[in-house]
Amino acid sequence: MKTFQLRETWAPEDGVLRRALGRDGRRYAEVREDLFLELRTTATRERTARMKLSELPDAVAISDDGQYVALVRRDPYEVHVRTRSGRVVWRTAEGRCGSTHEDGTYELDERHVALSPEPRALLLAADERFREQTMRRLQSARRHYLFDLKGRGGPRSFEVYSNIALQEGRACWNVPDPLRSNASFSADGRWIPLCMGDASVRLWDREQARLREPATRRGARLRQKRDGDLWRWWDPVQARFVPTPRYPDPIYAQIPQLLAVSPGGPTIAWLREGLLELGALLGTDYVEHPCEAHWVRAMAIDHVGERVALAAESSVYLYSAPRRAAREIFDQQAQTLAFSPSGRLYARARDHAIYVFGEEA
């Protein structure tokens, strides 16, 4: 049996200040101290584009075709999209993105910014944690901002809030611990997955501009089965008894901490405390697996939809759906993760080194 393990380490070269992974694992970006941004392929590390910047960006997102980059600067706040030649084709100072923690620390990188596959849209994700003024309880908020890059009469923008009603002007106040927001599109660009305030995962339909029903519905396949002296609901896919509204399971009342979609197909995964759920994007059957990873900051699914990588507090874990098993493959922290079409996993560390994982040759 081939082992999935660390194959290479790409330390930042002299003059490289920041790196960012493309969501499909084909490319990565490097920002140099002379304010040049370079795009390189992960397969050969060959440079495919180079552009001069006027300011140092805090986050960089790369389109799947490598023709566009989205750059976000925190102070002063600005978002703009450039072609690979460096020409600015769109900009805004609306919305916001990044993670603000209770102690005031702020994180902003490629997890919070995404270009749709076309690309015709830009998605920003933001979250914050704070103490409310009255009861001093810890509160959390998630917000998503979706921009139409091709709209007539200037960019058309609207906010996508992670609450049940998705009404303009309303936000979702949750307290998952930890809270992680990430911007992601489905492989075809139509769907935007959202962690909702009612503990479900739902999809925003860009074509019909509406919110799809929860993806976590299982009732269609359940049947009653005798369990000792009681009749309970049996799930033939999971081969176990499952909770019902009358007998709820606390695990399903937890708001998902983080989610990811495959860049190569219709597969989605999300993480609750101690539970990883994986399945088809529009389906109702999901594989559930106990998850020992804590304080997960990033997730990625391979292009086939069979592997999920989790970047935890001090380790990287790999879950295999066919084997229904997970194991630690790296004993250091990673900031972002991405799978390439060849199946290799790329992990960017805080010091901007990139670690490459793959099976034995």
The count of DSSP E runs of length 2 or more, i.e. the number of strands, is 33
What is Rg? Answer: 21 Å
Sheet of most strands: 7 strands, mixed
Principal-axes geometry comes out as globular
Q: N- to C-terminal separation? A: 12 Å
Kindly estimate the percentage of residues that lie in beta strands according to DSSP.
over 45%
List the total number of helices. 0
CATH topology, anyone? Methylamine Dehydrogenase, Chain H
How is this structure best described in words?
The chain has 361 residues and is an all-beta fold. 38% of the residues are buried. Helices cover 0% and strands 47% of the residues. Strands 10, 11, 12, 13, 14, 15 and 16 form a 7-stranded mixed sheet that branches. A 4-stranded antiparallel sheet has the order 1-33-32-31, with no helix packed on it. The radius of gyration is 21 Å and the shape is globular. The chain has a single domain, classed as YVTN repeat-like/Quinoprotein amine dehydrogenase (Methylamine Dehydrogenase, Chain H, 7 Propeller), CATH 2.130.10.10. It contains no helices and 33 strands.
